[in-house]
Amino acid sequence: MSFLTPAQARERHLLVVDDDDRIRSLLKEYLTRAGFRVTGAADAEAARKLIAMLDFDLLVLDVMMPGEDGFSLARWVREGGPSRLTPVLMLTAKDASEDRIEGLKTGADDYLAKPFEPQELLLRIEAILRRAGARPALSASLSLGRCAFDLDRGELTRDGEPIRLTEAETRLLRRLASNAHVAIDRLDLAQETADSSGRAVDVQVTRLRRKIEDDPKAPRYLQTVRGVGYMLAPD
Predict the structure, then answer these.
(1) Domains of the chain: residue spans and CATH
(2) How many CB atoms lie within 10 A of CB 204?
(3) pLDDT band at residue 43 using 50, 70 and 90 as cut-offs
(4) Is the pTM of this model over 0.85?
(5) C-alpha distances in angstroms, 78 versus 106, 129, 161, 168?
(6) In this predicted structure, what is the pLDDT of residue 180?
């Protein structure tokens, strides 16, 4: 049973940090199906960069990671900057009481030992978000030079005049805008199209650049990230 409506869930952005690619992918898939926006990170270093760039509603941190562990990352979150109030849920293969105590000492809001049922994780996440209260209203419009994109309405304007977008272009631009300044894998974007090879995404990007960029051949806002995919970099 879910306590958040689909609309409420879509407003919540989760960061899942786990060095196990399989577990991280499964959690992203499950929580995305539950209606959340989900970003993944394979280690603390990648997580720190994402936290510095994006506004997350909750962090799901694995404890046992190579290099910096989840306890250290949680302490950094609590001690620094705008993210210090972001709720934290710790995940670990350890279930000893001292580890739970250590997790809570770092300022974590809850602690879940592996293995766990995905439904339990979902319920705990929703309980934490309910306790945290409503998310502050954020601007739904992104500035792209002379253009602006309204995420809620899916509307693109240039100098205040509407620009027609196809349904596929709107879907792609929304996905990129929802993860602004973060490179998204080209094949990940292609999963939402009829062509899993990524060619349809490339065509849509080319068309969007003609509508957004002053110089589509030297894009400022809809950037190609070599070896990864595409990133939207609004003002």
Answers:
(1) 6-132 (3.40.50.2300), 141-232 (1.10.10.10)
(2) 21
(3) very high
(4) no
(5) 8, 17, 44, 40
(6) 86
